[in-house]
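Memo subject: From amino acid sequence to discrete backbone structure tokens
Action wanted: Derive the backbone structure tokens from the amino acid sequence.
How to read it: Take the token row as a discrete description of the fold.
Attached in line: The record itself begins immediately under this heading.
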Amino acid sequence: MGQRTDEVVIRKPSYGAFYDTPLDTVLRNLGRDTVIVTGTLTNYCCGTTARQAYERGYQVVFGADVTATDDESRQEPELAVLRKGFALVLTAEQITNCLQVIR
């Protein structure tokens, strides 16, 4: 599947999507204040990105069932840490329902 003309692709050199990338600038230029995190690995790239977004003042929504680890025993402990201080952790269905209300 190719890149759409209306999307931005950010290539990240490290775990977090904000480190040494233009992501923060792109989001601020678009007037965005919320980041929704999905992907792999929950306890590495996704968790790091959520923390970096939080530290930059974004509202962070973290997908509990649209993130994954290579060791299932690490999923829930990472979600617990994120819930406690960095993100609103929701299921994909909850995220979708919230987005429908906003529109």
In short: Strands lie at 34-40, 59-68, 88-90. Helices lie at 23-29, 42-55, 75-85, 92-102.
